[in-house]
Amino acid sequence: MTSGEGVTAGRPAAPDDGPIGDPAGDRPGAPADAAARAEGRPPRPSVVLGVSAGIAAYKACELLRLFTESGHDVRVVPTREALKFVGEPTWAALSGNPVATDVWDSVHEVPHVRIGQGADLVVVAPATADVLARAAHGLAGDLLTNTLLTARCPVVFAPAMHTEMWEHPATRANVATLRERGAIVIDPAVGRLTGADTGRGRLPDPREIFEVCRRALRGRGADLAGRRLVISAGGTREAIDPVRFIGNRSSGLQGYALARTAVARGAEVTLVAANVSLPDPAGATVVRVESALELREAVLAALENADAVVMAAAVADFRPVAPHDSKIKKTSAGPEPVHLVENPDILAELGERRREGLKPYPRVIVGFAAETDDVLANGQAKLARKGCDLLVVNQVGAGLAFGTPDNAAVVLGADGERAEVPRGPKEDLADVVWDLVAERLA
């Protein structure tokens, strides 16, 4: 009684258990990896981890560990003030590379130019309001800002600051400037800040920042910068009583993969999550819901000025007419029948709203079809019935799709386009979907 989460897979890409990127190789200024070349291996992707002076600097140690343990060569470039939070010996020990903050350190190596030139990725975590401002205005008063000016690779900022600082018009203007130039600025998370304060401004989970960086290293760039995207994920639950519900097996993994890849490509993402127990994707605004009616309301609320919506959630087709207020007891008479009523068809409604010009509606609509048999035939019929631009069709059951890290799918277009996505990580399918969405938005 559900329709929903697609599976994944994608174009050939670097394996997920190793370093990902476009290694600098013999590019001028790139650090040599003589041992790797001697063994016939490509040089490790070179990552510059900038650390600015925020209390969240200690979390960057975890981000550094994730990079080094996955095979990346990391050079840490902290600001002078950042060393008051985490000292130079810690960064040097964890990275295996020397640490400098000043352009006058090791002048003969011209570090203010060479570090940025040789990088495959620069990530600043945490990025304070001060560093964002200096980067936006092209200032170069220390080694980190010099590195940002010379880098010609993907640049990711993970801001962390108090809510008032993040919401200040100056910071918002600086963020907009950086994004216009192609940098990926991850919106901070909501949570506990320093002292007793709580709000938006918390550094996202280091593992989620790492996932954004991994996607950025794949080289698609910020082609979705300025786009507002709405994604649904997970599976709805329709209450029978306070204890029991009608549900489905969707884990939300595909929707979360869509959110991560969209953020890594520069988009502003609202993720409507139905009963998902996964860490919030860094940079996405997460709205949590339970039932199909709640999901519909949240999606429509998020559609204001949205460019595209991807309905990856598995939405229950039916719900009980009258849920019990208390737990249904087992009796000798046997169970009472559960009378069902049809839920709204959210995907079809979005297509209808667009046809009728009823705002809000998105420019591009993407649906998912989870099928157990006659997969393509059912998918083609659903594509025609729903009025969406793209439909991701996949086979579910017997260990496929739900709860798995990978799968295969076919993306059908209303214009007749058809993209077959072989089995692979769900992030790869997400990138294929965003490639097709970007084409239609352009």
UniProtKB/TrEMBL annotation:
It holds the Pfam family DFP. SUPFAM superfamilies: CoaB-like, Homo-oligomeric flavin-containing Cys decarboxylases, HFCD. InterPro entries: CoaB-like_sf (IPR035929), CoaBC (IPR005252), DNA/pantothenate-metab_flavo_C (IPR007085), Flavin_trans-like (IPR036551), Flavoprotein (IPR003382). Residues 224-439 form the DNA/pantothenate metabolism flavoprotein C-terminal domain. The keyword Transmembrane does not apply. Binds 1 FMN per subunit. Residues 1-228 are annotated as: Phosphopantothenoylcysteine decarboxylase. One of its GO terms (biological process) is coenzyme A biosynthetic process. Keywords: Decarboxylase, Flavoprotein, FMN, Ligase, Lyase, Magnesium, Metal-binding, Multifunctional enzyme. Residues 9-35 have a biased composition (Low complexity). It catalyses: (R)-4'-phosphopantothenate + L-cysteine + CTP = N-[(R)-4-phosphopantothenoyl]-L-cysteine + CMP + diphosphate + H(+); N-[(R)-4-phosphopantothenoyl]-L-cysteine + H(+) = (R)-4'-phosphopantetheine + CO2. Its EC number is 4.1.1.36, 6.3.2.5. It comes from the Bacteria. CTP binds at D317, K327, P344, D345, I346, L347, F368, K382, K386. Residues 1-44 are annotated as: Disordered. One of its GO terms (molecular function) is FMN binding. Pathway: Cofactor biosynthesis; coenzyme A biosynthesis; CoA from (R)-pantothenate: step 2/5; Cofactor biosynthesis; coenzyme A biosynthesis; CoA from (R)-pantothenate: step 3/5. One of its GO terms (cellular component) is phosphopantothenoylcysteine decarboxylase complex. HAMAP family: CoaBC. In the N-terminal section; belongs to the HFCD (homo-oligomeric flavin containing Cys decarboxylase) superfamily. In the C-terminal section; belongs to the PPC synthetase family. This is Coenzyme A biosynthesis bifunctional protein CoaBC. It comes from Streptosporangium sandarakinum. The lineage of its organism: Bacteria, Bacillati, Actinomycetota, Actinomycetes, Streptosporangiales.
